[in-house]
Amino acid sequence: MKERELRKRCRRLLKDLDISPPLDVGQLCERLGERRGRPIRLMAYPLEVPGPFGCWIATATADYIFFQQETTKAHQDHIILHELGHLLADHEPGGDAEPADFLRGPAVESLDGDAVRRALRRTSYDEAHEWEAETVATIILEWASVLNYTIPRAAADHGLRRIQGTLGDHQGWL
Predict the structure, then answer these.
(1) Cα-flanking dihedrals φ and ψ of residue 126, to 5°?
(2) Per-chain mean pLDDT for the chain
(3) 4 CB burial (10 A radius; 0-12, 13-18, 19+)
(4) 137 and 81 in contact (C-beta within 8 Å)?
């Protein structure tokens, strides 16, 4: 998929999900999960370094995004958005890779073993899949960083929020 198509898809998704600045990655995952009819569960996990920073596991009932717990919040958000990028770019979990050691342990034991074996990991993507996922993460973070500083926060008062919505800047997602 071309970058222009990814940008359109991201813009449409963020507008459809009514995600407004400041970006809350957890809220984005929650709303995307609701829209898809299967929750996206975020799992902070002490992933071994060196190794992948994140992993998306699709089961029959939910999507799980494991991400490095031993890093900054900003880096965690980027990792989560990268893994979401695989979902948004319509990548399918697949392949014959055995789960890496970082996928073993109590946090994963209750998950479907076949789903874990099919998990898309950074080490098993081809370059096009990785580029697409990273591009989605970058697009969303770029827009969020601009909008977080240029759009005033919504007022707590409902009446004032309506006035802001009517008279305010409607730049929205770029």
Answers:
(1) -85, 170
(2) 74
(3) exposed
(4) yes
Residues 51-70: tens digit of each pLDDT? 778 888 888 788 889 899 99
CB 77 within 8 A of CB 25: yes
Cα angle 139-141-147, degrees, rounded to a multiple of 5 = 100
**How many distinct structural domains can be found in the chain?**
1
In terms of residue numbers, what domain contains 74?
3-167
For residue 18, being part of any structural domain is answered with: yes
Q: Where are the alpha helices (DSSP H) in the chain?
A: 3-16, 25-36, 73-88, 106-109, 113-117, 127-150, 158-167
144 in a domain, yes or no?
yes
Q: How far apart are CA 92 and CA 138, in angstroms?
A: 21
Residue 54 lies in a domain: yes
R_g (Cα) of the chain, nearest Å: 17
Question: What are the distances in angstroms from CA 112 to CA 33, 40, 52, 109, 165?
Answer: 19, 15, 21, 8, 45
